[in-house]
Design a protein that fits this description.
heterodimer; A: 180 residues; mainly alpha; Serine Threonine Protein Phosphatase 5, Tetratricopeptide repeat; 9 helices; B: mainly beta; TolA/TonB C-terminal domain; three-stranded antiparallel sheet; 2 helices
C-alpha cells in the first residue's frame, strides 16, 4: 500500500478536475446562478477514481473520456491520465503507448516526460529515464513531481544513506566571537 | 531521536520511515511526496563530544535529515550557539551559520530539546556559552544496477 501510494505521488494526472472548478468560478464571477460541472464527465470521474486508488475503474472511465474528448487539452489530459493509470496498474507497455502518444502530440508536455521517466525507472531503463527527466526539467524546471521522479532515479542509480554528525569540539565559535 | 551520552563518540543507527503525505488537488493535479517508494531508511548519527568543556551533555536530541534535502541531495552543515544554564537546560539558541536554510529548523529544534548535566549550586559556570556543529551528509552506497 505504501509503495502504491508513493508511486501515485510521482505520477502526474492532468487537469479535468480543475477545468470543472475553473468553469464554476467563471460562472460565479459572472453572477450566474447556474454552476456547471466538468465538461467531460468521464474524464473528470476517471481522474477522481485514479486519485482514489481505483486504478482499473479510473482507466476505464478515462478511456471513455478520451473517446468524447473535445479539443487538444482534453485529449492530452486523457492520454496523460491513461499513462499514469496504466503505470499504477503496472501495465508498463500500455502506459508507454499512451505516454508516447501524448509526447508525439505535444513534445512540450512535461507531464508526459515525467510519466514516461517513471515507466523507465520502473522497468530499469536508466538511460532512457535520465533523458526524459532532463527533457522534463528543461520544460518545467521547478516541477515538484519531476524532482520526486529525479529522486527515484537517483535512489535507484546513485543511492545514498544520510549521515548526521554532531560536533561539540568547536573552539573557533567561542563565547567571545559569538554575536549576541 | 534522543540519546543519553557521556562517551566520546556515539554511533546510532536510526530506522525511520520516510514517507510523508503531501497531496493536493492543485492546478494540474500534481501530487507530491518527498521520497518515493517509502523505503525504510537508516540514518547514521555520530556525536563528537568536547572533552575540554566543563559541561557534559546529558540528553542529546538528534535532528532528522530533512526529507527535501535528502530528496534533492542537499548536504551541508549548521552551527548553533547557545547558553547552558546552571540547571543544564539550553537557552538563547541562535543559528550562527548554515550552508542551507533547510537545515535551520531541524537543528534549532534538536538543540532546544537537548540538555547538559546540571551544576551543583556552589559550582561556578565556566564556559556557559558554546556552539555545536551539525553536519548533514549523504554517503553513497554501492548498488548493482546491471540486473535489467
Amino acid at each position: 500500500m505504501g509503495s502504491r501510494f508513493a508511486l501515485l505521488t510521482v505520477l502526474v494526472l492532468a487537469a479535468p478536475l480543475c477545468w470543472g472548478q475553473g468553469a464554476e468560478r467563471i460562472m460565479r464571477n459572472q453572477n450566474a446562478t447556474t454552476v456547471i460541472g466538468p465538461r467531460n464527465v468521464p474524464l473528470y470521474d476517471g481522474a477522481k477514481a485514479l486519485l482514489a486508488g481505483n486504478d482499473a475503474e479510473g482507466v476505464r472511465l478515462t478511456h471513455q473520456g478520451l473517446k468524447m474528448a473535445q479539443g487538444r487539452r482534453e485529449e492530452e489530459a486523457a492520454l496523460s491520465n491513461l499513462c499514469a493509470g496504466y503505470i499504477m496498474l503496472a501495465l508498463y507497455d500500455n502506459a508507454l503507448k499512451y505516454c508516447e502518444l501524448l509526447i508525439a502530440r505535444n513534445d512540450k508536455n512535461w507531464r508526459g516526460f515525467n510519466n514516461r521517466a517513471v515507466i523507465y525507472i520502473q522497468t530499469k531503463q536508466w538511460d532512457k529515464a535520465e533523458k526524459d527527466l532532463i527533457r522534463g526539467e528543461e520544460l518545467h524546471p521547478n516541477a515538484r513531481t519531476l524532482k520526486i521522479a529525479r529522486s527515484m532515479y537517483m535512489d535507484a542509480v546513485h543511492p545514498v544513506v544520510p549521515e548526521i554528525e554532531i560536533d561539540d569540539r568547536q573552539r573557533q565559535f567561542s563565547a567571545e566571537s559569538d554575536p549576541q | 531521536m534522543t540519546v543519553n551520552g557521556n562517551s566520546v563518540q556515539n554511533l546510532i543507527h536510526n530506522k525511520t520511515p520516510t514517507v510523508f503525505v503531501s497531496a493536493g488537488l492543485a492546478a494540474g493535479l500534481l501530487l507530491g511526496s518527498a521520497l518515493a517508494f517509502g523505503q525504510l531508511e537508516t540514518t547514521s548519527v555520530t556525536h563528537f563530544l568536547d572533552s575540554n568543556t566543563d559541561r557534559v551533555p546529558l540528553l542529546t536530541t538528534f535532528p532528522t535529515y530533512p526529507s527535501i534535502a535528502r530528496r534533492d541531495r542537499i548536504q551541508g552543515q549548521a552551527v548553533v550557539c547557545f547558553m547552558i544554564r546552571q540547571d543544564g537546560r539550553i537557552s538563547r539558541v541562535k543559528l550562527k551559520e548554515s550552508t542551507h536554510r533547510i537545515f535551520r529548523k531541524p537543528v534549532l529544534r534538536a538543540m532546544k530539546r537537548s540538555t547538559f548535566e546540571p551544576l551543583a549550586p556552589n559550582q561556578i559556570l565556566a564556559t556557559a556559552r558554546t556552539c555545536r556543529t551539525y553536519r548533514f551528509r549523504l554517503e553513497p552506497i554501492l548498488v548493482d544496477n546491471n540486473a535489467n
